[in-house]
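Re: the request from the purification team.
They wanted to know what the chain is likely to look like in 3D before they choose a buffer screen. I agreed to run a prediction and write the result into the notebook, where they can find it.
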Amino acid sequence: MAITVPQSESYQYQDVKVLYVEDEMFTREKLLRVLKRRFSDVHVAIDGEEGFQLYNQHLPDLIIVDIKMNQMDGLAMIEKIRMLSDKVQIIVTTVHDDNQIFIQSIENSVNHFILKPIDLEQFLLAIQKSVYQIQLNKKLSNIDPLTKCINRFIFEEILSREISRSERYSRPFSILLFEVDCFKKINTYLGHQKGDEVLSTISTIVQQRIRESDIFARWGGEEFILLTPETNSRGACVLAESILSLINTFAFPKIGTVTCSFGITEFSPNKKKSDLILEAEEALFKSKQNGNNCVTVFSEEKGGK
C-alpha cells in the first residue's frame, strides 16, 4: 500500500521529500497527519520492502521508519539504503529499548532514535534537526569546494532566470568569462596543490571586488564566470580591467605574477543562454590570441573587439 499525500496550501518545510514506513495502522495515521501539515511531498509504505522500492522511485531527503515490520524490517531497509546514500536523513522509531537495536542503528548511521509511544515534541525536534541538515547539505552541494563560489550547474539556473527578468523589464546584464593564463605550466612545474592555491586565491580576489548582486561561479578547470546585473558591456569591461589589475598586482607565493584573460558579452533581446556563453567564449578566445592578460568584448561583426 503506497500512498502519496496530496498537497495542501502551505508547509513549514519546503522542498523536502519524506518517506514514512510504518506497519501499525493507528500509529501510521496519527503520525501521517503530523507530517501532512509540514511537508508537501510524503510517501508512505507499510514495510521495509515497499519502503525500499519507494526510496528508489522518489529519492526522499528524510526517512522515518519503524524497526520491526513484516517482509523487511526497518534496519534491513536502512542498511540497503545506506549502501546507496550517506546523505539521506533517517529517523528510527521503535518500542524496543535495548542496546542491540541501538548499536545496530548507530552502525547504520541513523540520525535520530525515538522510542514509542512517540513524544511529539521530541519527534518534531528530530524533524527540525534533520531538515536543517538537509538544507545545509543542499546549500553546500551548490558550492565549489575549492574556490568557495557557486558551481556551473547553479550558475546556469541563475542565468536562465536573469534572461527572463531582463527580457521582461528590458534591463541590461553582462557575462564575463575568464581563464587563468598558462595554468597547465603551474600544475606541471609547481604541482597541483600550488595550482589549487592559485584558483582559491583568484576566487577570493574576485569575490572581494564584485557587488553583492553579482553572481560569480567556477565554470570549470581554470575558468570562472561572472554575471553582472544592470551592467552593460562598457561597465563590465571596467570591472574586468579592475579584476585583471588586482590579480596582476597580487604576489602569489613561490609563483609571483599570475595573469588572466577575459571575454565579455552583453545580453540583448532574444539571445539564448547558449548564445551568451558562445559569445563570451569567442571573446575569451580572442584575448588568448592577443597574447593573454587582456579583456575582449564580443562584437557581432568580428566576434570580439
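For the purification team: The radius of gyration is 26 Å.
Please add any questions underneath this entry.
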